[in-house]
Structures are given as structure tokens and as C-alpha cells.
Amino acid sequence: MSKYSELAKIPVFSIKDVEELTNNTKTAYSFLGRKIKKGEIKKIRQNIYSWVNPTTGQIAASNYQIACAITSSAYISHHSALTYYGLANQVYYEIYVSSETRFREFMFEATLFRYVASKLNKGIINAKNTTGVRITNLERTVIDSIKDIEKISGIEEFMSSLEIIHYLNEDKLKLYLDGYNLQFLYQKTGFLLNHYKKELQISDSFIEYCKSKMGKSTRYLLTYDFAESYYNSAWQLIIPKDLFETTKLGEDNFV
To answer: Does some domain include residue 233?
Structure first.
């Protein structure tokens, strides 16, 4: 089986990869069947396979590699991207997978692979030193996290991540903000990043740019109920009172 030596270097593969080696669909399925029966290959889901390490009994593919093999356009995003970059405080047993093609969520070895509709094709990179992982870059991850802050991870976890980021590229942030072109996103991004402006090395001009794009509507930073809130006139946002422990309300009015 020396002709399969190249396949052994691929942590996650499909039937097509095997067919390219055998030039025969029947032979490819036969090969997979034998290897699965022997416990040398494990089927992760339809058309996704990985080799099994005989020493540990664990598959060669990581959860991130599995996620990116689900569809041809799949990539890691949101909280899962923050986790990959070492910026998440909580470990979630789920992977957020953005994709242009919808797929059914599924469990594999206690990890849930969750579908997120891909709405932007910018800011997606190949992860360094990791085969087969596509992921949003840091700036795109931040914008996506703010955009979907109540759907994925939550604001407390996201702010914990912001506290340990040392720099964000403003040009990239603008590129993704403009790509989505949502007034509420400029509004919420400007408010949140302004609070961490010094830590993230964000300029006043970027904050003013967000303000110029946010429109005139008053919005809630979060839509779920909270005990007490205040109105931030600069950002036209209604904000939970205890969102920042060190927030100075100044002339803001309670509602």
C-alpha cells in the first residue's frame, strides 16, 4: 500500500482524495472499508475521514481541521477563532464554522460543530503552521463577534478577549465594517473599542469614523433584559449599567 503513503500525511480526507490515488471508485471504497474495519481510519461524518494513531487511539485530525473539511468554503470564526488564537477564557465544546454552503450541525466525540452563515468573503486566512485550517483573521474575528455578540459566546466572554488583545489594524477593521455596512455594527464597534482604545492602540480618527457611519437611531447594545441601564448620548446606545466595572457614567442619563 505504498501508494497510500501520501494519503497518510493528510490529517483529514475525503473519498475523492482516495479515488485520486486509485483511479477507481470501487477500489477507493474497498480500501476505506478495510481500514475502518481494522480501526486504522475513522469515519467522522459523511465523506470526512481521518487516520487513527495506533499508539493513542486518537484521530490525526484536530477539531479545527475537521471543521474546515465540512464544506469547500468552511472556515473557523467567532469564539472558535478567538480560542484558536489563545484569546478565549472559556473552553467551549463546540466549534463555530462559517460556510457559504449550509450543513447540518453534528456531534463528533463530544464536540458540536455549529453552522454559521458566511456573509462576507474577506479576512479569511490559512492558519500558519497548521494544515487545512482556514480561519478569520483577528480583526475580522472581532467584527464578527460584535455583530453576533448575543448569538455566540456573549459579551462578557468577548470583553475578556478584548482585554488581552494588544493591537488591532484599523484599516482591516474598516474594511470588514464597510463590507457588512450595518449602522448598528459601526455603533457598537465604536463604543466597545473606544473603551479599550489604549490597549488596542485604536486612534481617535477610527472612533470618529465609526460615529460618522452609525446613523441617528438609538439602539440597545444588548437586546436581552438587564436590571438597570443608562443612555450613552455619544453613541446613542442604551447600555447595561454594570457592563464595565470602571465605567464613568458622567452626564449619562439612567432610563
So the answer is: no
Q: Does residue 103 sit in the same domain as residue 142?
A: yes
Q: Is 211 in the same domain as 187? A: yes
Place of cell 485530525: 61
Closest by Cα among 141, 158, 153 to 244: 158
Segments forming the whole domain that contains residue 21: 2-51
Residue whose C-alpha cell reads 466549534 in the numeric block: 95
Are 81 and 32 spatial neighbours (Cβ–Cβ below 8 Å)?
A: no
H or E stretch covering 238: strand 237-240
Q: Residue 235 carries which side chain, given as an amino acid letter?
A: W
Query: Per residue in 134-179, pLDDT tens?
Result: 999 999 999 999 999 988 878 889 999 999 999 999 999 999 999 9
DSSP 152: T
Residue with cell 481500514: 35
- C-alpha distance from residue 32 to each of 40, 59, 220 (Å): 9, 15, 53
Q: In whole angstroms, what is the distance from residue 48 CA to residue 142 CA? A: 30
Instruction: Find the helix or strand (DSSP H, E) in which 114 lies.
Output: strand 111-117
Pair 147, 34 in one domain: no
Q: For residues 217 and 15, what is the distance between their CA atoms, to the nearest angstrom?
A: 52
- Single-letter residue type at 34: R
